């Protein structure tokens, strides 16, 4: 049962990631990778950090069951967020000789992600 919850949560998160990225950077398909700031990935990762903060706080403070955490935490947030795309996009920015943009992306991802997780924890 838990595996099915993770599966469905992950599928939903992956679809949300795709839709969010396309809504932010739909025109990006015509550009070369590394030419543009990866707003879509930054957005989904920060949103995922916030949601996981809420879920983690809820699981600890409100004693949510493991099924809620499996569906929304492991599944939804796991499908929504993407560390591998973050890493590849960082490398692409560096390889396209955009080190300042790459460093800004790294810093914003870390600061906004941790800030969103903290805010989510407070809300949860």
Entry keywords:
mainly alpha, 124 residues, 5 helices
Tell me what the structure shows.
The protein contains five helices and no strands. With 124 residues, the protein is mainly alpha-helical. It has one domain. α1 packs parallel to α3. 32% of the residues are buried.
Q: Can you count the helices?
A: 5
Low-confidence stretches: none
User: What assembly state would you assign to the polypeptide chains in this entry?
Assistant: single chain
Number of domains: 1
* Beta-strand residue fraction: under 5%
Total strands: 0
- Note the main sheet: none
Structural class: mainly alpha
Write down the secondary-structure element order.
HHHHH
What's the end-to-end separation, in Å?
25 Å
**Shape type:** globular
Mean pLDDT across every amino acid position: 91
Global Rg:
16 Å
Helix fraction? Answer: over 70%
In short:
The protein starts with a helix and ends with a helix. It has helices spanning 2-25, 39-61, 66-80, 83-95, 99-123.
Q: What is the element layout, followed by pairings?
A:
Blueprint: H1 2-25, H2 39-61, H3 66-80, H4 83-95, H5 99-123
């Amino acid at each position: 049962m838990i595996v099915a919850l993770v599966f469905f949560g992950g599928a939903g998160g992956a679809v949300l990631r795709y839709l969010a990225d396309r809504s932010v950077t739909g025109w990006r398909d015509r550009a070369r990778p590394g030419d543009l700031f990866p707003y879509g990935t930054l957005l989904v990762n920060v949103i995922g950090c916030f949601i996981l903060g809420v879920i983690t706080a809820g699981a600890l403070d409100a004693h949510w069951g493991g099924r809620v955490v499996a569906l929304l935490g492991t599944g939804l947030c796991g499908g929504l967020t993407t560390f591998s795309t973050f890493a590849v996009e960082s490398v692409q920015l560096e390889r396209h000789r955009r080190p300042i943009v790459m460093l800004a992306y790294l810093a914003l991802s870390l600061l906004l992600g941790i800030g969103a997780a903290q805010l989510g924890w407070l809300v949860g």
